[in-house]
Amino acid sequence: MSAGQVTPEPPFLAACRRRPVPHTPVWIMRQAGRYLPEYMAVRQKVDFLTLTKTPDLAAEVTLQPIRRFGMDAAILFSDIMTPLEGMGVDLDFDPGPVIRNPVRSAGHVDGLRVGDPEESVPFVMETIRILRRELPASAPLIGFAGAPFTTYCYTVQGSGSKTFIEAKAFLYAEPEAAARLLDKIAETTSRYLSAQADAGAQALMIFDSWAGLLSPRDYRRFALPAVQRIIAELRSHRLPLIYFPNQGSTLMASAREAGADVIGVDWRLPLSEARSVLGPDLAVQGNLDPAALFAPRDELARQVDRVLAEVGGAPGHIFNLGHGIERTTDPAAVAFLVDRVHEQTAR
Ligand code: 1CP
Predict the structure, then answer these.
(1) Residue 165 lies inside a defined structural domain of this protein
(2) In what order do the strands lie in the sheet with 317-321?
(3) Mean pLDDT, residues 328-343 taken together
(4) CATH number of the structural domain spanning residue 95
(5) How far, in Å, CA of 148 to CA of 339, rounded?
(6) Does residue 5 sit within a domain?
(7) What would the pLDDT profile of 228-251 be if each residue is shown by its tens digit?
(8) Residue 123 Cβ < 6 Å to ligand 1
């Protein structure tokens, strides 16, 4: 490329690296999904598991919110449980993950394999290659995985839960077997994210949706080391790495040590407070309450502006919700949100 024709870095990637941006980039956790009629039209034809395993369809639903709203990043359509099948875990969805034979013993842990992504989930890498051809340069592609502790929760509990009591009981009753399971999941996840990077993902995000079930002490014992290990192994790819410890208000000082470039913050903690704990060397992503999308437009605008004011124009902010979008959200509210962030931050 000759001088003067250098393509500007997309705002999302610039913000991950705490560089100046023409506007604050925005995307939404779970931006592809059941609140979109065009997603439901695809889901009428195929079940969720088939959708994740059919690259053309997975790429199509990834593109849907980009086309409709013009977000600043796309996220691969898949699920945090997808790589677990390669470990020998028997996975189904109804609508959340269901494991018929949850892992509850040391013997079961030792019988699991470390998954090889090229062998067990090649459709994910094929989806990424299709998306890199079809996405506009303004919407970089985020690859993702669950954090080992969160994936462990579903693997031991066998389904979603408010408390994941079986999963927590196994930590305390069989700490060594639990540690071996977390290790195998971490190794599988590291290889899985590395394969996504090789296939063309431009940033990687690790979802620790259930980190907030742990006390800071247990978080440091059971959850953080596995995340640190994955992040250290992914560094050679030179991509921005995002870590989201959901319900992590009491865990921020520890999450800072994960080694990520960006920390996702849920809506319970003001971004100004998160930044004062995380320090100036980390970017933040978040953190509008997903319920704000149900408010009248003037209240939604006030809440968007409040999130922006907490950052105060400092570099290194990616606007997002504080957790996934609710299924009954009106898509028109999402359009309003994306436009509002762009208008309020245009520089
Ligand atoms: O029936 C359907 O259409 C399935 C609903 C659905 C969808 C759209 C599930 C089942 N997974 C997904 C896609 C998905 N899951 C994406 C890609 C879409 C996007 O973001 O645009 C991502 C990033 C995920 C990640 C995911 N899955 C997380 C982490 C994020 C979070 O929200 O905390 C978790 C915890 C899951 C588990 C899961 N998968 C599906 C459901 C309904 C759940 C939650 C289960 C529970 O209640 O615990």
Answers:
(1) yes
(2) 74-75, 141-146, 203-208, 241-245, 262-264, 283-288, 317-321
(3) 98
(4) 3.20.20.210
(5) 35
(6) no
(7) 999 999 999 999 999 999 999 999
(8) no
Among 30, 46, 244, residue to substitute to test ligand 1 (most atoms within 8 Å of Cβ): 30
Domain span holding position 262: 11-345
At residue 1 the predicted structure's pLDDT band, cuts being 50, 70 and 90, is: very low
246-276 tens-digit pLDDT: 999 999 999 999 999 999 999 999 999 999 9
Considering just the CA atoms, what is the radius of gyration of the chain in Å? Answer: 19
Q: Does residue 263 sit in helix, strand or coil?
A: strand
Beta bridge pairs of residue 320: 287
Q: What is the pTM of this model?
A: 0.97
Amino acid 5: pLDDT: 61
For the CA of 159, the nearest atom of ligand 1 = 48
Task: Give the contacts of 4 (CB within 8 A, at least 6 positions apart).
Answer: none
Position 3 in a domain: no
CB 344 within 8 Å of CB 308: yes
How many structural domains comprise the chain? 1
